[in-house]
Amino acid sequence: KGICMHSTQDQAIHLEEESNPSATPTSSRKMPKSISISKQLASVKALKKGSDLEKAIATAALIFRNSSDPDGKLGKATAKNLLQTQFRNFTEGQETKPKYQEILSELDEHTENKLDFEDFMVLLLSLTIMSDLLQNIWSTKNEK
């Protein structure tokens, strides 16, 4: 490979491809586990002085990208796994709620259908809105 002249932002996007020269177009685009999300965030130049909200959305975007396939889509089984591992404080205790059951059953059905980033963010927001943790966050805000 020749020397690549990319901006810092591009380096975050292409880091995995350059670190794995044997990668083929059909291989997974997952980032190596050794590169933490915080290091990936730090490599995005525009976020150096980013707000907490900007960093939160960028973190969600990086987690989505690291888990997505080469087409930028997330398999439903992978999405479900992410919810159970990366979003468990929001999903914990929600198992008895009909809306939660509906969302999870949708992830189990039609598994050939994949989620794009917008679908993934809507899924996160839907689960956040119904979560007990959100209610806890609202009540903490009022306890100044």
From TrEMBL:
Residues 20-34 have a biased composition (Polar residues). One of its GO terms (cellular component) is cilium. SMART domains: S_100. Residues 12-34 are annotated as: Disordered. GO terms for molecular function: calcium ion binding; calcium-dependent protein binding; transition metal ion binding. PROSITE patterns: EH. InterPro entries: EF-hand-dom_pair, EH_dom, S-100_dom, S100_Ca-bd_sub. Residues 96-144 form the EH domain. This is Sentan, cilia apical structure protein. The lineage of its organism: Eukaryota, Metazoa, Chordata, Craniata, Vertebrata. The gene is SNTN.
